[in-house]
Amino acid sequence: MKFKKCVIYCRVSTEKETQSESLSRQAEELEKMAAELELRIEATFSDRHSGYDTEREGLLDLLDFVQKEKVDAVLIQDETRLGRGNARMAILHLLTKTNTDVLTYHDSGPISLNEMDTMLLEILALVEEYQRKIHNAKIKRGMKRAIQEGYRPEKNLKNHGNLEGRERIDVPLNEIVSLREKGLTFEEITAVLKGLGHDISKATVHRRYQEYSAENSLS
User: Fold this and answer.
1) pLDDT band, residue 18 (cuts 50/70/90)
2) What distances in angstroms separate CA 195 from CA 127, 171, 178, 180, one per listed residue?
3) Residues 6 and 35 sit within 8 Å (Cβ to Cβ)
4) Is 129 exposed, middle or buried (0-12, 13-18, 19+ CB in 10 A)?
5) Neighbouring residues of 11: CB distance < 8 A, sequence distance ≥ 6
6) Confidence of residue 191 (pLDDT cuts 50, 70, 90)
7) Parallel, antiparallel, or unpaired: how do β-strands 39-48 and 73-76 relate?
8) Hey, which residues are catalytic here?
9) Which one of 41, 97, 118, 166 has the lowest number of neighbouring Cβ atoms within 10 Å?
10) What is the pLDDT of residue 102?
11) What SS3 string covers the chain?
């Protein structure tokens, strides 16, 4: 049988030395669980923080690792080790987005969620889906308006035929100025540029345009 990848996460609520034994016990129990389930342990993370706190070094390292390494499961002693209150649901949601299962020693397998928890995770997933749809709709609307105003993106990108155009990774100042002069808002300009492959924020678009305006007002 091919071993699937997992990581172990242990947490205690304080930094007292007496809690070290609890961390060690959690790790030992979860290592045994991984062996029984034929899971290959890729890494072990731990924290000495409250479960209500999301700013935990071990937790943040775990989330980064899971996203980059495509881990199949996170093993924890019980659901409270992952977090408490809203922090717990936020972390579960992030793990769900990476298709990472949460297995607990207490449940001897997948984490047991109540009806309210399950419904909340489904709602969060739906909200994110509609946020993506709205974002894509803004990009399409901005692009349509820019083209109606005479903007031709294929003339401004190297990989669209113009070898003298700007690279995608550059801040496209000429395009920002051109779209602004056509009456588009900074939000619409940002949406258009994102649709063209520029990873740029509205704040950056606004700042670069302000810098351009200031430079030209002095000349």
Assistant:
1) low
2) 22, 14, 16, 16
3) no
4) exposed
5) 23, 26, 46, 47, 48, 49, 51, 56, 58, 59, 76, 81, 82
6) confident
7) unpaired
8) 13
9) 118
10) 94
11) CCCEEEEEEEEECCCCHHHHHHHHHHHHHHHHHHHHCCEEEEEEEEEECCCCCCCCHHHHHHHHHHHHHCCCEEEECCHHHHCCHHHHHHHHHHHHHCCCEEEECCCCEECCCCHHHHHHHHHHHHHHHHHHHHHHHHHHHHHHHHHHCCCCHHHCEHHHCCCCCECCCCCCHHHHHHHHHCCCCHHHHHHHHHHCCCCCCHHHHHHHHHHHHHHHHHC
Once rounded to an integer, what is the mean pLDDT over residues 66-85? 90
> Closest Cα to residue 12, out of 72, 67, 80?
80
pLDDT score for 57: 92
Length, in residues, of the chain: 219
DSSP lists the bridge partners of residue 110 as 103
Task: Kindly state the tokens that stand for 121.
Answer: 């995770």
Question: What amino acid is encoded at 149 in this protein?
Answer: E
CA angle, residues 21, 26, 31, in degrees to nearest 5: 125
CATH 1.10.630.10: does it fit domain 4-113?
A: no
pTM as predicted: 0.58
Closest CA to 172 of 140, 145, 162: 162
Question: What residue ranges of the chain are covered by domains with CATH 3.40.50.1390?
Answer: 4-113
90-129: per-residue pLDDT in tens? 888 889 888 899 999 998 889 888 788 778 777 777 777 7
